[in-house]
Structure of ABC-type polar-amino-acid transporter:
Amino acid sequence: MSTPEIDVRGLHKSFGDNEVLRGIDLEIGSGEVVCVIGPSGSGKSTLLRCVNLLEEPTKGQVFVAGAEVTDPDVDIDAVRRRIGMVFQQFNLFPHLSVTDNLTLPQRRVLGRDKAQAAEVAADNLRRVGLSEKAEAYPASLSGGQQQRVAIARALAMGPQVMLFDEPTSALDPELVGDVLAVMRRLADEGMTMMVVTHEMTFAREVADRVVFMDGGVIVEDGTPEQVIGNPRHERTRHFLSRLLDPAMADVEEEISDQVGKSEQPPN
Ligand SMILES: Nc1ncnc2c1ncn2[C@@H]1O[C@H](COP(=O)(O)OP(=O)(O)OP(=O)(O)O)[C@@H](O)[C@H]1O
Ligand SMILES: [Mg+2]
């Protein structure tokens, strides 16, 4: 692989004496799409937040597009300009129109003039299929539309990589598809993407790699076919069965408990 677009080396992160990331190594190549899955509390969001330095790692290094994010002398604003981030909550400015939501950060952070910023905004609204909402206010949009505006806003900054933290988990089920379709198109266009998600169909169809995290470490890292289709570790199998059918996972657990008991030698 040529220089990875995202390179995480020996990353540790503690909150007080709670060690949340316990040695993460992860390389993501240019144009690669990596989905990160794992149970609640396993450190997925913390990992994403360390990549753009919303959290400061306790130990280890992070490089984005060849620049060390964790270098104490780094120009963090310059680094963040290369990284687009989309959260579960869309965080749009409610008092600004869709266009102004897209132009404001371009003007403030990149110093683009009004006309330039408006042109880039229009291009990116077209990219997410929302040209007709340019003058609308966020409150008049569905959750799925708001999330697509948030994606367009991130894209308007011209990022080299995009990080997504459960971008569809706050949405009503019928709105999820449109957001995933936009992300799929972005992947097809060659964007480097790191996506924390529970959408296994998306992970299977769009991801080049799936990373399963548990307890602050990467347990499995491979193709979707390997990690979702044929997981090597019991922890991964357990997580996936629970995700696909929570009721069945409990039954399975009960059965394996009982099998375990009956296998013990009588005394
Ligand atoms: N700012 C913080 N201060 C203290 N503890 C934190 C902070 N952020 C996260 N944690 C703790 O770190 C652990 C991992 O949290 P994180 O949000 O990374 O998990 P996650 O895998 O994203 O979970 P979820 O699927 O629920 O979003 C949790 O135990 C959480 O309580
Ligand atoms: Mg999270």
